[in-house]
User: Fold o-succinylbenzoate synthase from Arthrobacter bambusae.
Amino acid sequence: MPPFPTLDELLATAKVVSLPMRVKFRGITERETLLFRGPAGWGEFCPFPEYGDAEAARWLAAAVEAAWQGFPPPLRDTIPVNATVPAVPAARVPEVLERFGRVDAVKVKVAERGQELADDVARVTAVRDALPDAAIRVDANAGWDVPQAVEALGRLSAVGLEYAEQPVPQIEGLAEVRRRLVQQGTPVLIAADESVRKEDDPLKVARAGAADLIVVKVAPLGGVRRALDIVAQAGLPAVVSSALDTSVGIRAGLALAAALPELPYACGLGTVRLFASDITQDPLVPDDGAIRVREAVADEGLLERYAAPAERREWWLDRLRRVHALLEA
Ligand SMILES: O=C(O)CCC(=O)C1=CC=C[C@@H](O)[C@@H]1C(=O)O
Ligand SMILES: [Mg+2]
Assistant:
């Protein structure tokens, strides 16, 4: 493994961009990200602004892996992906889906703050109406408590759900939702996302038997190799998903999906379609429901065009300095 790059090596090529989103996602309308280039290619460092430095350190480890080490050998060359439908009004569903082209799976955001269960039912039903045969999964981002999750999934399962991602915040809660849904006669598979990427121990949820599958993201888990190791130890099916990154981050997600021994589900890696622009001339977006595994090379002109304002650039470079110091310590 090459030695960990110095701060100066990272700063030498660091670019900070701010990319407009087509649809608001996770409350975000502009996605800021820092990119740098190393001997193995481009790396992306884009922890969400509210994340602390300790959490951001794993994101930097992942970006350095991409740029200085490269990826393990792929076992497959195309990765099936889902369309991602943010918490939009049901009437906007066709327009969002259209951007993804043909897909066999759709992930729908639910339990958005300020919305009602009726909004979720309408949105998921609109997806089902548009795509009668697609696999539909929902992602609540821990937005429900246990009784709300049981009620909501009881209702939503009427349209046919592939699985529900992180319905409630805690591992014990996930286990409880699973139990109650079985009791209620509407078993829905439970996927853990935040309970993998935000726990100190990403394997706790698997050991607790609280989920049927896990969602794995390269950046929050600290790189492709670490994520592969987590999946192997968890012993559960895994879905690779994005961190709302540019094609450079998606490239790392594709590398993980391509290297997993089994890939039973479509991956949440189609999110470049939610952006109004990307930083490469060959964006890693789905074509006929899948993305072909390939390199993502940032384009100088696009990096320039979407360069973040000076004050935001300084904010990101300061963060890079602090987080780099943490990793060196
Ligand atoms: O999985 C997908 O279809 C898209 C990626 C996605 O949903 C997410 C990306 C980035 C941040 C998260 O809030 C969110 C998720 O919770 O899975
Ligand atoms: Mg999720």
